[in-house]
């Protein structure tokens, strides 16, 4: 998963979660997709095919929901800081314009204040870029393990049900609803995170010791609104 998938852009609010995209499934899972679209109907009917929305599977797992909440909290804290700096810069700019119109300040003073504002604006832009990189690093760090685990579940589903091809949903122009395995992958992931084995078996317990309960799911974090 590459770090440039995020849509977080500078001091403006953006729907960075909506920009999150999982990479296309591993080559082993999509091998033969070109042949699928080119094959005759009789040959295609003999193949067992499934479809998964990898991005939704990642974000709607219990762990994915917690990741969204953590990223949103980080985003909001950085956004508050940037907004405060932006408002201060705007106030200084308006004060400079007012003094320039009233002609009560010398040109030399106005020029120095203008140059200082330019420097502050450049520093604010640099801070915004650093926050963007920070968001990208954090997102990659937190979502890559989920992606890898989802792909592992996809492989297990393929082995269990004999699917020859499992396609990424975004690459499929049409499909029957019953071919999608996204919800199944989410359930298997949550089961494994709660102590199960993603294959539906109950978690092992020690004699006389109850199994640990699964971590509670959190509500989906709404994407920040653009200004």
TrEMBL record:
UniProt cross-references to SMART domains, sorted A to Z: OmpH
Start and end residues of each stretch annotated as Disordered: 190-227
Short name of one Pfam family: OmpH
InterPro entries registered for this protein in UniProt: Chaperone_Skp (IPR005632), Skp_dom_sf (IPR024930)
Domain of life where this protein originates: Bacteria
GO BP annotations listed: protein stabilization
SUPFAM superfamilies attached to this UniProt entry: OmpH-like
GO MF assignments: unfolded protein binding
Family: Belongs to the Skp family.
Protein name: OmpH family outer membrane protein
Organism phylogeny: Bacteria, Pseudomonadati, Myxococcota, Polyangia, Polyangiales
